[in-house]
Specification:
Layout lengths: L1 H15 L1 H7 L2 H24 L9 H6 L17 H48 L6 H46 L16 H17 L3
Helix pairs in contact: 1-2, 1-5, 3-5, 5-6, 6-7
Pfam families: 7tm_1
Keywords: Cell membrane, G-protein coupled receptor, Glycoprotein, Membrane, Receptor, Transducer, Transmembrane, Transmembrane helix
GO molecular function, one term: G protein-coupled receptor activity
């Protein structure tokens, strides 16, 4: 997800300021952006998990998996999260990146829209310059209308492409991160591995999010 966020920012810079982008986007800057992204990933996932900061330090652990601490195997996977970690990790790894992506892709669309209209205006001006007599007036009007329709189609295509990219991404990951924030606030019912919802439902939403990676090439 952070990869997609960095890519969206990179594309926005490249489109909004192409000449400045060519000058400033050096391999060193690219490596710095990638390093920041990986550092955030380590800070919100690897380190908290290794230090057990992510676990729910309440007696509800035994209630979540139906066993008592003394009966737990060392290999037992504790999937319960405390509220602070669940919210902070979801904000950093999903909600904030999604907000950034929405802003960048919206601006990219507006820039593309302006560029398409400018190109269409230049095309119409070029066609008008070719009309030297009044007899060509009707033809010029038809060509202008055709150019406008082509411009509208281009804008629609850009909007559809960006909408599909963001729509699929949000639809795949939003359910999981909503549950990820809700689960720590629910009271355990003692019958499933996860409070409030079944483990099967949670697993389905997890795989639904991972499926987004397979949809990206399409």
């Amino acid at each position: 997800i952070l990869n997609l966020c960095v890519i969206s920012v990179d594309r926005y810079w490249a489109i909004s300021s192409p000449f400045r982008y060519e000058r400033k986007m050096t391999p060193k800057v690219a490596c710095l952006m990638i390093s920041v992204e990986w550092t955030l990933s380590v800070l919100i996932s690897f380190i908290p998990v290794q230090l057990n900061w992510h676990k729910d330090q309440t007696s509800g652990y035994a209630e979540l998996n139906g066993t008592y601490p003394g009966d737990l195997s060392p290999d037992n996977c504790d999937s319960s999260l405390n509220r602070t970690y669940a919210i902070s990790s979801s904000l950093i790894s999903f909600y904030i990146p999604v907000a950034i992506m929405i802003v960048t892709y919206t601006r990219i669309y507006r820039i593309a829209q302006k560029q398409i209209r400018r190109i269409s205006a230049l095309e119409r001006a070029a066609e008008s310059a070719k009309t030297a007599t009044a007899a060509w007036g009707t033809s010029s009007s038809m060509e202008s209308e055709s150019s406008f329709k082509m411009s509208f189609k281009r804008e629609t295509k850009v909007l559809k492409t960006l909408s599909v990219i963001m729509g699929v991404f949000v639809c795949c990951w939003l359910p999981f991160f909503i549950l990820n924030c809700m689960v720590p606030f629910c009271e355990p019912d003692g019958t499933t591995d996860f409070p409030c919802i079944s483990s099967t439902t949670f697993d389905v939403f997890v795989w639904f999010g991972w499926a987004n990676s397979s949809l990206n090439p399409i």
